[in-house]
Amino acid sequence: MPTDPVALTADLVRCASVTPVEAGAIQMLDALLTDAGFECTRCDRNGIANLYARWGAKGANRSFGFNGHTDVVPVGDPADWSVDPFGAEIKNGILYGRGATDMKSGVAAFAAAAVDFVKDTPPDGAVILTITGDEEGDGVDGTDAILDWMADNNERMTACLVGEPTCPEVMGDMMKIGRRGSMTAWITATGVQGHSAYPHRAKNPVPALARLVDRLSTHELDDGTDHFDASTVAVTGFDTGNSANNVIPAQCHAMVNIRFNDDHSSASLIAWIEAEMDAIGAQTGIRFEMTTKISGESFLTPPGELSDMVGRAVKAETGISPKLSTTGGTSDARYVKNHCPVVEFGLVGKTMHQVDEHVEVAHIEQLKAIYTRILRDYFA
Predict the structure, then answer these.
(1) Strand ranges (DSSP E) for the chain?
(2) Does 173 share its domain with 286?
(3) Which CATH number belongs to the domain containing residue 308 in this structure?
């Protein structure tokens, strides 16, 4: 009997796996894949549940991999939901629940496709599934931990598909062949505190920091590249922590988020910000300090054999040729790209992270069919 991806999605949604809690989701997939003949290994790190599953010989010449996550974002106020967020209720062909779209349905679809494929058409090669419980959080102990374990144990994927929801409007309308880089900078400006009636006796950091963030946010980093939109700079925080209207504060803080294309690296952007801090510091006498977090560098899997194969499978099952895109936020493809060529294709993502998150049951079944076709074509 074929593996039902809808029932598997529902079972996974019923696991309240709010990151970083595992809640039984990884265990369930471990049991399913082990029963299907996959060699399964837990690659847990720092309390995060991760699963590596391989069907076929270690070191096979060809090994197609899927990557996904079972952790979900918090539900918010459950009273805002019209259904139990972890009830996996199906109404009028729609399955509701946290993670229904992002991305327990994607994991269910590729797990079901893989189980049935190796049973019905044992391939000349290996099918590999890498599933993490740490994508919605910091991500450092998730897919990256699995890839570290793979490197230590000479395990290898030759190509990989990440099952994140990629379609903005209609099933099949977009796949991802890369992602923009993302970094956040926290900037502190330090001056001298004083009475606002005697500003000449103080050194006010507020105007200096305001000048800096204005220069950063109004600067045009680029106008886009062949496969990427223009890079963006957004000031996401500005605070003195000062509640007294007659005190010039000693410090002021700003937060800046940059989404950047392949014209830049995090190192080049940090150097740019430091140069601007130095220039304004020299003009004003204000001291600037910065800390940064790099969520990921920009990357691209150039259009070619892998994206063509996925695109053909999507069109065969949906009638739509997916647009090749690099839009959106980060995903775990940013880790996989250092291991092997990687693309992303999954469901329509309109309701991900929202109240009453949901997915069309027919789309889950369609996604399994797409993944099955990709496996068949890859090993043909």
Answers:
(1) 39-42, 50-55, 63-69, 90-91, 94-96, 126-132, 159-162, 174-176, 178-179, 181-190, 194-195, 232-239, 247-248, 251-260, 287-296, 299-300, 323-325, 342-344, 358-360
(2) no
(3) 3.40.630.10
Q: What distance lies between CA 19 and its chain's CA centroid?
A: 13
Greatest Cα pair distance in the chain: 82
Q: In this structure, are 209 and 169 located in the same domain?
A: no
Residues 229 and 321 in one domain: no
Catalytic residues: 71, 135
Q: What percent of the chain has pLDDT over 70?
A: 100
Please give the backbone phi and psi of residue 331, each rounded to the nearest 5 degrees, phi first: -150, 175
- pTM of the model as a whole: 0.91
Give the mean model confidence (pLDDT) for residues 65-87.
97
Confidence of residue 328 (pLDDT cuts 50, 70, 90): confident
For residue 147, the surrounding DSSP H or E stretch is: helix 143-152
Residues spanned by the domain of 251: 181-296
